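Good morning,

Attaching, inline, the backbone tokens for the sequence recovery test we're adding to the shared suite. The designed sequence is right after.
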């Protein structure tokens, strides 16, 4: 089975700007955020996860159990509350964030020594690649 646990550093990001625009993130925040190289610290214990995304500017923390819906606050991002659920699709972690925004969610998977993150909101898809610290 896959283990996402560890510390991961962003190495590349495609269309984060489009994703942030779809979320309605303001201009000033987008200008700062697009230059950031966030670090992810993932703790996985069975089907329990905590994911800390840290940057010099702002950070985001989320905690969940596979298959258990929770209320996500998206604090520090767009602050829109979502009913969120994360499930396994084979070895991919698939998150659906139901709320005001259509087609909102993300998928995490590992290929080789790289962690992939695809972020979706409305018509926008952002793809990020992280490497182990
Ligand atoms: C930052 C900086 C401030 C503006 C925005 C950010 C985006 C954070 C995102 C976090 C995604 C977290 C996920 C967790 C699970 O893996 C970097 C905090 C918009 C998109 C997908």
């Amino acid at each position: 089975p896959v283990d996402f646990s560890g510390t991961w550093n962003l190495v590349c990001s495609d269309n984060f700007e489009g994703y942030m625009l779809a979320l309605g993130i303001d201009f000033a925040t987008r200008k700062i955020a697009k230059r950031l190289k966030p670090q992810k610290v993932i703790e996985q214990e069975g089907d329990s996860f905590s994911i800390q995304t840290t940057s010099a500017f702002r950070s985001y923390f989320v905690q969940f159990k596979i298959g258990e819906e929770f209320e996500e606050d998206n604090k520090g991002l767009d602050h829109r509350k979502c009913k969120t659920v994360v499930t396994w699709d084979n070895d991919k972690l698939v998150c659906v964030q139901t709320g005001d925004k259509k087609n909102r969610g993300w998928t995490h998977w590992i290929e080789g020594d790289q962690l992939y993150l695809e972020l979706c909101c409305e018509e926008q898809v952002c793809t990020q690649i992280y490497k182990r610290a």
